[in-house]
C-alpha cells in the first residue's frame, strides 16, 4: 500500500472521528470553594453552553436524562443554545421546559441569541417555560445563611468581533448594566465570552461561567485549543478551570458546533460545578 493511500485512509479516519465526536458528551466535574458556606452543604451547578440546536437523542432525552442523574441544585445556561437565524430555538425551549422541572434554570444570552430577529419572542417563551432569563439582570439563590447572586451579562455584538477588532471592557460598563456586587454574597456571572475574565473579576465576580470558544475547535496535547471564534490562535482561555485574582472561571467546551462541524480531541461537555465549604474540599 502506497504512502498516499495510507495518508488518505488516516485522513478519512480522522474526519470520521471528528464528525462522530459530535454525538457524545461527557460530564466534567469541578470544585469551587465558597467562603461562608456550611462545611456539610454542597451546591451543585450544571452548566450548559453552545448547544447550537444540537439534539442528543429524541427530544434531547439523553441530555435531559444525564442532567437529571447529576441531581443539580441549579442549572446555568451560558448562551448560544440556538443559531442566529433562529434554528434550534424550539428545541432549546423544549429542553428548558423539561429541565426547569428539576431545579431553577438561569439563562444568559450569547452572541447567537442576541442576533436573532425573534429575540424578544424567544426570551418570552423561555420565561413561559419556567426559566429565569438574565438579560443584564440578576437573581438570588439562598443556601442556609449564604446568599448566591447569579448575574447574566448580555454583551453587545461588538464584544464578539475578531481579535484585531477586539473592544476593551471596563468595570464601569458592568456596573452600569449589572449593578455593583455587594461584599457579603457569592457572585456568579454568566458571561458567554471568556476573553474578559480579568475584568469580570475586577468587577466582583467570584465565579464566571462561560462558553463561546468551543474548546478551541480542535485540541492538541499540551497545546490545548487551537483557534477561537475571534480567530485568535491558541487562545489563553480555551476550556477548563481558570483563576484570576479572587475569581474562578469554568469555561465549557460546549455541546454543539456551528461553522465547523468537526470536533478533534474535543468531546462535547456538560460542566458540573460543586460549590463547597472550604474545609469540605478533597
Description:
This protein is of the alpha/beta class. Helix 6 (171-178) crosses helix 7 (197-203). The mean pLDDT is 88. The chain is globular. The chain has helices at 3-20, 61-69, 89-99, 111-115, 119-128, 171-178, 197-203; strands at 26-33, 42-48, 74-77, 105-107, 132-133, 137-143, 146-153, 186-191, 207-210, 219-220, 224-225, 240-244, 247-251, 269-276. The chain has a 6-stranded mixed β-sheet, covered by helices on one side. Strands 6-7-8-9-13-12 form a 6-stranded mixed β-sheet. It has a two-stranded antiparallel sheet with strand order 10-11.
Which key phrases capture this entry?
six-stranded mixed sheet, 14 strands, alpha/beta, 282 residues, 7 helices, 24% helix
How are the strands of the biggest sheet laid out side by side? Answer: 1-14-2-3-4-5
Give the percentage of residues in beta strands: 25-35%
The computed structural class is alpha/beta
Order of helices and strands: HEEHEHEHHEEEHEHEEEEEE
Average pLDDT level: 88
Radius of gyration computed on alpha carbons:
19 Å
Total E-strand runs = 14
Task: Categorize the overall geometry.
Answer: globular
Instruction: Please describe the biggest sheet, giving its number of strands, its sense, and whether it closes into a barrel.
Output: 6 strands, mixed
Helix content: 10-25%
Number of helices: 7
Which residue ranges are poorly predicted, with pLDDT under 50 across at least 5 consecutive positions? Answer: none
End-to-end separation: 53 Å
